[in-house]
């Protein structure tokens, strides 16, 4: 047999004897149908055969069918023929057909109120939008008959009204003296216009005028930096004017949007923070502090009122071109873009794109290779891949739509690119793009690209290249890190806040109090059923700032409270509290660096492999003024005790060694520090022709150890006269800076043996007298200090020498005849000048003026002329400082001993 399609109908309610008007029309070849079999024992239906020849049958209910018990039935039915063998043993079955029956509802139930009685309390003299809400239900199964469509107050002449949702309000101000309690009756109708069988009683108590709210709190709370956690409301309690409360919910919000980047964060430089948080190295800071080396941010507007945080403000007219030598050139399939951003809604109906970062063609065309921009409160990241082997569509634009983009608050955005997957982190929370669009790859060309911040460079397709798509908002710490992506742990560390709300003695908090902090700990929500426990919990709320030098100023507090009576109904209104936490001015540290201000070394030291150490005796200390003296100074009072400087320990974030005067010649000179000196420290170093910078958040002692190992190297020290350097150190990215330590480095040039002092004598500066055998052995010795007694003797000798020279010159001009006689006399008397044992070294700041071959030859001659008297001093070096005699010529101006008369 073949079973025809079953017709499904929607009956109402059926008894066992009620047939279902479902027929199975004839669709079989000749033969007898003996039965219909319903599979499913739980089905309250049966099928009977009406005509075995035609195959007609009928479904009917075997029991009560109720919509509230079951709305739908689905079962399988199958037909059986009578069979052709003896007794029908060879009967056949039809295919199985599905039957779906849906039961219609009838409006048999009336609405019933959830509560047997409702109560509420109101204060006199007020108009309430909602005093309480009554609620009724209906047991019918269909939406038409089960929903409550209307409520009605049946009591006559009452000053109350009720809406379709069961909310009761008063239509006039109530008076406690006129009537202290109202009792009204409320009924309900379902959407089938069936009324509740019994009305519900609602009692509303009128309370006299009271001022519920928090009592015993101060509008201003002073916070002394470095004191840890401080209770904000040690004596506060909630006044409910006698109303019984079933629960209370209090929210304490610390509003710090005006402090730096949303709260009091450590305002170290971006590189220092990344080092401190363990971020991968190799990031490029696109918005550094303006300086001689980073001058592309000099034209941008900075917000200087943010605790020295480097915040750049863009008003739709500023942009900066990033120099080619700064732009990362190796952006692969893995890189990270991170920035702080504060942005509000765009102006105008047709908002334009606002570009944070853009890399476009510098000339000829206007292709955007990658960019990050805001458009209609959406953040869009564009990444056009270069053409490789296959010219196919690839993911190119990634869109995010978030409330944070236009809420005018600071947020930390990190875009991790693992092409083709791009993930956005906002304040440490992950967001996947809601839209990703594809585009063709960019074909290679010889056109240079231009990276810009604050707008996009349009170098082609226009008559005059210009900026376009300007950004309007604030940015800080915009960095690109090629080759690696940041972990969520590092991202959370970079945006962590240093101030927030806290709870003192958390272990003493009652177990019935539920509390919750937001991730930044700027919002605290507490809930409880007991009023006294809630009061005790609020008194434990504290403010904490873990920064050693927090940003001074006001932090606004707002406390909002809602209380419940009889379940979920609000019984009284608690006014909000606005208070201020005033963070006092911290004791500012005075960072002092000290060391030698003048350094003189022989030229052989400069050319040695290690160069010379510039700051071997460097010392860095930090002091603060005692707190009571500082407080007295703020209030204008006379301090009880004289000011005392106390030494403190804290971190530094960078020290700069700046070259004064001409920059370093990259081919001849450099500043160097061993990489091993940085191991085990949170420090790194960069150098250029302008100097060296050691940066990272670390202790003053670590900075001392590293800077003491900074060495200056010069390949040709003979061409060097002097170099001047300046050392400065900083804490909190320049908020606190040290004094300037200026160091002047002088070169002590080697003397030329065999030369003698010329006729012209300049004002003496200094003179060195040393043995010729050790003239060139200076690399391992410093210049010895001259004892005071020796200085007097040397000065007297020089004075006598000058007198002799003057007298000799005078006699030369008197008579030429006496010269020969004087010479013979001098030879006979054995008083000839033996200059082999005395070398007069000229000013080491002047060039030697002789080539190396002449100096070597003369040195060899002087070595041969060492006398026996000098050999007694062969085991120690004679190093005596004398006033300098200026050299007039390279050669040929030695003393003519025969022409000097004594």
UniProtKB/TrEMBL annotation:
GO terms for molecular function: calcium ion binding. The chain crosses the membrane at residues 789-812. Gene3D superfamilies: 2.60.120.200, Cadherins (2.60.40.60). Residues 884-902 have a biased composition (Basic and acidic residues). This is Calsyntenin-2. It is a single-pass type I membrane protein. Residues 848-879 have a biased composition (Acidic residues). Residues 826-902 are annotated as: Disordered. It comes from the Eukaryota. It is found in: Cell projection, Dendrite; Endoplasmic reticulum membrane; Golgi apparatus membrane; Postsynaptic cell membrane. Pfam families: Cadherin, CLSTN_C. It comes from Takifugu rubripes. GO terms for biological process: homophilic cell adhesion via plasma membrane adhesion molecules; positive regulation of synapse assembly; positive regulation of synaptic transmission. The keyword Signal applies. The keyword Signal applies. SUPFAM superfamilies: Cadherin-like, Concanavalin A-like lectins/glucanases. Keywords: Calcium, Cell adhesion, Cell membrane, Cell projection, Endoplasmic reticulum, Glycoprotein, Golgi apparatus, Membrane, Postsynaptic cell membrane, Repeat, Signal, Synapse, Transmembrane, Transmembrane helix. Residues 36-113, 114-214 form the Cadherin domain. One of its GO terms (cellular component) is Golgi membrane. Belongs to the calsyntenin family.
């Amino acid at each position: 047999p073949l079973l025809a399609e079953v017709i499904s109908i929607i009956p109402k309610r059926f008894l066992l004897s009620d047939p279902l008007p479902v027929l199975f029309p004839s669709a079989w070849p000749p033969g007898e149908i003996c039965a219909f079999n319903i599979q499913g024992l739980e089905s309250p239906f049966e099928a009977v055969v009406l005509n075995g020849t035609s195959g007609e049958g009928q479904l009917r209910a075997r029991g009560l069918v109720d919509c509230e018990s079951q709305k739908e039935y689905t079962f399988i039915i199958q037909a059986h023929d009578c069979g052709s063998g003896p007794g029908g043993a060879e009967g056949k079955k039809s295919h199985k057909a599905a039957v779906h029956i849906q039961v219609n509802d009838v409006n048999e139930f009336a609405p019933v109120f959830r509560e047997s009685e409702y109560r509420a309390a109101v204060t006199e003299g007020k108009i309430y939008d909602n005093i309480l809400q009554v609620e009724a239900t209906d047991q019918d199964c269909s939406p038409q008959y089960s929903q409550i469509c209307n409520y009605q107050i049946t009591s006559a002449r009452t000053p109350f009204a009720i809406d379709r949702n069961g909310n009761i309000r008063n239509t006039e101000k109530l008076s406690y003296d006129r009537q202290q309690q109202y009792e009204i009756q409320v009924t309900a109708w379902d959407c089938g216009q069936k009324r509740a069988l019994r009305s519900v009683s609602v009692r509303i108590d009128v309370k006299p005028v009271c001022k519920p709210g928090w009592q015993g709190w101060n509008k201003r709370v002073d916070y002394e930096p470095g004191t840890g956690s401080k209770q904000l409301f040690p004596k506060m309690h909630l006044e409910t004017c006698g109303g019984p409360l079933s629960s209370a919910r209090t929210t304490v919000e610390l509003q710090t949007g005006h402090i730096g980047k949303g709260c009091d964060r450590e305002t170290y430089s971006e590189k220092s923070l990344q080092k401190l948080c363990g971020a991968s190295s190799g990031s490029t800071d696109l918005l550094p502090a303006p300086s001689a080396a980073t001058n592309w941010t000099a034209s941008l507007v900075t917000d200087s009122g943010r605790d020295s945080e480097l915040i750049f403000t863009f008003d739709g007219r500023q942009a900066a071109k990033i120099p080619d030598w700064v732009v990362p050139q190796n952006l692969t399939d893995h890189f990270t873009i991170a920035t702080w951003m504060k942005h509000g809604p765009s102006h105008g109906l047709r908002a334009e794109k606002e570009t944070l970062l853009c890399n476009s063609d510098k000339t000829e065309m206007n292709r955007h290779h990658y960019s990050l921009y805001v458009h209609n409160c959406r953040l869009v990241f564009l990444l056009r891949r270069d053409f490789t082997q296959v010219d196919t569509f690839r993911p190119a634009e990634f869109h995010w739509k978030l409330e944070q983009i236009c809420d005018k608050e600071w947020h930390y955005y990190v875009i991790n690119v693992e092409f083709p997957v791009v993930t956005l982190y906002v304040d440490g929370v992950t967001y996947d793009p809601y839209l990703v669009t594809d585009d063709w790859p960019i074909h290679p060309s010889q056109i240079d690209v231009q990276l810009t911040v604050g707008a996009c460079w349009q170098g082609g397709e226009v008559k005059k290249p210009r900026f376009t798509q300007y950004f309007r908002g604030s940015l800080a710490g915009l960095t690109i890190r090629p080759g690696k992506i940041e972990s969520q742990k590092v991202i959370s560390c970079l945006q962590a806040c240093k101030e927030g709300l806290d709870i003192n003695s958390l272990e003493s908090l009652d177990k019935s109090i539920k509390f919750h902090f937001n991730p930044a700990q700027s919002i605290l929500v507490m809930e409880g059923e007991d009023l006294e426990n809630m009061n005790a919990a609020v008194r434990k709320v504290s403010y904490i700032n873990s920064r050693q030098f927090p940003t001074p100023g006001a932090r606004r507090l707002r406390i909002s409270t809602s209380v419940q009576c009889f379940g979920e109904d609000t019984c009284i209104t608690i006014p909000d509290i606005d208070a201020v936490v005033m963070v006092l001015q911290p004791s500012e540290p005075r960072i002092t660096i000290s060391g030698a201000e003048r350094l003189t070394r022989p030229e052989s030291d400069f050319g040695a492999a290690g160069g010379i150490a510039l700051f071997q005796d460097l010392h860095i200390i930090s002091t603060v003024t005692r707190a009571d003296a500082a407080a007295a100074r703020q209030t204008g009072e006379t301090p009880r005790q004289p000011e005392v400087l106390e030494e403190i320990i804290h971190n530094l974030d960078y020290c700069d060694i700046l070259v004064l005067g001409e920059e370093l010649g990259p081919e001849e000179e450099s500043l160097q520090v061993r990489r091993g000196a940085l191991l085990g420290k949170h420090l790194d170093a960069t150098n250029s022709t302008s100097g060296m910078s050691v940066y990272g958040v670390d202790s003053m002692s670590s900075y001392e150890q590293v800077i003491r190992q900074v060495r200056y190297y010069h390949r040709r020290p003979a061409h060097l006269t002097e170099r001047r350097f300046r050392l400065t150190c900083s804490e909190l990215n320049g908020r606190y800076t040290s004094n300037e330590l200026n160091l002047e480095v002088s070169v002590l040039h080697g003397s030329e043996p065999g030369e003698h002092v010329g006729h012209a004598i300049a004002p003496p500066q200094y003179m060195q007298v040393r043995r010729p055998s050790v003239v060139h052995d200076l690399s391992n010795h410093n210049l010895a200090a001259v004892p005071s007694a020796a200085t007097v003797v040397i000065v007297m000798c020089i004075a006598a020498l000058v007198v002799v020279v003057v007298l000799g010159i005078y006699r030369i001009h008197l008579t030429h005849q006496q010269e020969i006689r004087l010479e013979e006399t001098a030879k006979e008397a054995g008083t000839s000048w033996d200059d082999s044992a005395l070398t007069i070294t000229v000013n080491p700041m002047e060039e030697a003026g002789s080539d190396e071959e002449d100096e070597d030859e003369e040195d060899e001659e002087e070595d041969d002329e060492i006398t026996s008297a000098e050999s007694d001093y062969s085991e120690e070096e004679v190093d005596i400082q004398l006033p300098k005699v200026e050299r007039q010529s390279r050669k040929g101006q030695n003393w003519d001993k025969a022409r000097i008369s004594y």
